[in-house]
Amino acid sequence: MALRSKFLALFLIHICLLLSLCLAADPFVSYDFEVSYITASPLGVPQQVIAINGKFPGPTINVTTNNNVAINVKNKLDENLLMHWSGIQQRRSSWQDGVLGTNCPIPPKWNWTYQFQVKDQIGSFFYFPTLHMQRASGGFGSFVINNRAIIPIPFDTPHGDIVILIGDWYKRNHTALRKALDAGKDLGMPDGVLINGKGPYQYNTTLVPDGIDYETIEVQPGKTYRIRVHNVGTSTSLNFRIQNHNLLLAESEGSYTVQQNYTSLDIHVGQSYSFLVTMDQNASADYYIVASARFVNESQWKRVTGVAILHYTNSKGKAKGPLPEAPNDEFDKTFSMNQARSIRWNVSASGARPNPQGSFRYGSINVTDIYVLKNKPLVTINGKRRATLSGISFVNPTTPIRLADQFKVKGAYKLDFPETPLRGPPKMATSVINGTYRGFMEVILQNNDTKMHSYHLSGYAVFVVGMDYGEWTENSRGTYNKWDGIARSTVQAYPGAWTAILVSLDNVGVWNLRTENLDSWYLGQETYIRIVNPEETNKTELPIPDNALFCGELSKLQKPEDISFAVSITSNRSKLLFMLLMAVCALMSVFG
Question: Coiled coil: which residue ranges (predicted)?
Fold first, then answer.
């Protein structure tokens, strides 16, 4: 009996060691996404939208810094699908980024599990489908990364956390919009603006018909809330404001900001912000939440306005009166640019780590690579309307760039994207930027179009160091903010103006650089930055996932069962723990 007891004790010690090793690592969080079509009427007309688990918009992903995230995506659409986690840096793993340069698409009726760690990140982000302009039909949702408990946030803990998804919206679905672009047409004026997937409150009986379902956000008087606002729309910059309430800006796309009050803020396509809003008004009536179109003929675009309701729990009546006014600067864009320049990095706050955000002295690092990326109005190439970046309209490869590298597929792309715009005629090509590992790149986004554009770089937060009207020159560097420029993943470039960003190329992989305007993106305004560690060590890039999909020149490597049974680290790990615990229980019953 004594021998049995010693054996059991020894066994339990080993079990405890195994359990402690399993539990000591960063926690796992898992989600299941079923992506499908449903019928909804956000603007009063039934239309096909893309839902996640039957919901439009999709559910919020809520995780904590350094969590391991597994998201099993089931594609129930009638076309290929990729999901992108905008602003999630995918450290060492561009395999999980969900764009065609790195991933083969998930075919209809198949599923695939994304697995990544939100390493050293905090903040407000969102996810969406990247193919075929699908985001114009939905499939988007919020992605929140909370601080670890040991890292203080630079403000008092809010009473609650509220997500607001804003975006322009068409009554035509993405398929119809795509056909219009393929036919050489413009998308035209959107039919409205949605707030959390719902149409506008009927603030005006002429502009808003009866029967529109609108969003109501209930709050408690006297409390302060963190409100995370994301522009998930197609191509329209929106001015966001809450009637009679100040917006205290606190964070943008993973970086805490210097806290400043705004009565309204321009939020461009693909951008995310966190505001602290105190419910300090009287409760005689509800209040308007407004998102209205910017940088357009506002008298003609009045219908492109989203209106929701802020409802105090002790409110005595409905919202009334005219909407709070947007900035009155239709013919003077300096107001918006000056507002953008005022958004600065809180260099003394801790981000995802205990050290201050400003401990990375970006302004004193020598630049190794300079790229001037010029956007022009649409051009015609080979009889087709195309969007270009520096004279090149990107053609997605049949074999994703990262897969082509892994399996040494020749001719999939060229590392020849020019440092300055092409002087000759525009062309279509799979042209990629050759980034230097651990280099420091300066990128000038020169927008010579008449429309506002915003640009996103996957895999990184970039430092926004300058913007101004006119053509960028080397003398423009004298205006750069070299101390507290905000670090973010999506930055605007005003029409007829330039924006300068700096980025430290320390994340190995293939990373998408694109316009967030869906029409121009669909028509080719993007490229990729390829960053390779010449030492080829797993310390700087994770190996190809076990469940990787294959397409193009590598289609023969794909087996149907590779997708039918999605690999999930989370489930495997949970099963291991369950089996160990079951074994302990069985032995305890035997030796008890």
Answer: none
DSSP 41: -
| Alpha carbons 451 and 119: distance in angstroms, whole number | 35
Give the span between the Cα atoms of 163 and 227, in whole angstroms: 6
Tokens standing for residue 64: 């904590």
Q: Any residues with CB less than 8 A from the CB of 386 and at least 6 apart, and which?
A: 378, 379, 380, 393, 426, 428, 523, 524
CA–CA separation, 84 vs 230, rounded Å?
Answer: 15
Distance from C-alpha of 485 to C-alpha of 33, rounded to nearest angstrom: 36
pTM of the model: 0.92
Q: For the CA atoms of the chain, what is the radius of gyration?
A: 25
Residues 356-407 pLDDT 10s: 999 889 999 999 999 999 999 999 999 999 999 999 999 999 999 999 999 9
Residue 439 · residue 369 · CB < 8 Å: yes
What is the widest separation between alpha-carbon atoms in the chain? 91
What are the tens digits of pLDDT across the range 129-144? Answer: 999 999 999 999 999 9
pLDDT digits (tens, 9 = 90+) for 174-198: 999 999 999 999 999 999 999 999 9
Token pair 């802020």 in the structure block, residue:
310
CA 276 to chain centre: 21
For residues 8 and 411, give the distance between their C-alpha atoms in angstroms, rounded to a whole number. 61
Burial pattern 405-439, b for ≥16 Cβ within 10 A else e, equals beeebeebbeeebeeebeeeebeebbbbbebeeeb
Angle at 250 between CA 248 and CA 253, to 5 degrees: 135
Positive or negative, the CA dihedral 417, 420, 422, 427 is: positive
Q: Are 254 and 487 spatial neighbours (Cβ–Cβ below 8 Å)?
A: yes
**Cα dihedral 404, 512, 196, 313 sign:** positive
Measure the N-to-C terminal CA separation of the chain; round to a whole number of Å: 11
